[in-house]
Design brief:
about 240 residues; 2 domains; single chain; about 20% strand; alpha+beta; two-stranded antiparallel sheet; Alpha-Beta Plaits
Length: about 240
């Protein structure tokens, strides 16, 4: 009988509207993530937004605005744990921070929708999408810009082992491939490697490089028969 006491058509329609807005906004955010093949994509962001809206709406109906405010606080901390699961450490690189932040944004959108702040939910969606799309070219430009060695905390080094007679050709190929990828070289060292080979170390000036891009450079290098080894690593500047 308690279920019938809580059944109210206008309230139910209001909940439907709030959840619909949360679903649409979360799906828009998730679509951008899915398009870029991120860990948390369309379904995850939509579910986070809808779940946040459900919790806030339910608390508002049971305990009023004060109850909704308390649940919002729990949603913020709970999504923080969910986002932590998307963060991975790959050597010196940390991946998934932006995905975790996006999940937080989806939860905020859902909380706004659940509280009945539909305009605010739509506005928040616009800003989350803007952060993930409009700021991307700026981030890429800044990351690829040369910096003083002292200003950079992380350095990327490409190491290539080739025959002594192919040293010049190897250096030219390294320079060509990195220039094509828009990765300027800050330092180039050559050291003896065994009796007949040399090791060429190219240190990049960029503070952030996608591992897939360097992997593609490595693939192109090892395709040459006169290159015996090619790899890259990261280091922390003192």
């Amino acid at each position: 009988m308690l279920s019938f006491a809580h059944f109210n058509v206008p309230t139910l329609l209001n909940t439907l509207l709030c959840l619909t807005v949360a679903f649409i906004c979360g799906s828009l955010i998730g679509f951008e993530r899915q398009f870029r093949q991120r860990t948390a994509g369309l379904r995850t962001n939509a579910l986070v937004a809808v779940a946040a809206a459900i919790f806030v709406d339910m608390a508002g109906q049971l305990s009023g605005p004060d109850g909704a405010v308390r649940v919002v606080a729990y949603v913020v901390s709970g999504v923080g744990f969910l986002g932590a699961g998307t963060i991975m450490k790959d050597g010196m690189n940390v991946r998934g921070l932006n995905t975790a932040a996006t999940l937080w944004g989806s939860a905020a959108v859902g909380a706004c929708a659940g509280a009945g702040l539909l305009s605010q939910a739509v506005l928040a969606t616009v800003f989350v999408l803007a952060a993930n799309t409009l700021l991307r070219p700026i981030v890429n430009a800044v990351n690829r810009a040369p910096l003083d060695e002292a200003a950079s905390e992380l350095s990327f080094t490409l190491c290539v082992v080739a025959g002594r007679d192919k040293q010049k050709a190897a250096m030219e190929l390294i320079d060509q491939l990195l220039e094509q990828g828009q990765h300027p070289i800050s330092e180039l060292d050559v050291e003896p490697f065994g009796e007949d080979e040399v090791e060429i170390k190219a240190t990049l000036t960029a503070t952030s490089v996608e591992s897939e891009e360097l992997d593609a450079v490595i693939t192109a290098l090892v395709a040459k028969q006169w290159i015996s080894q090619a790899y890259w690593n990261t280091g922390v500047n003192e």
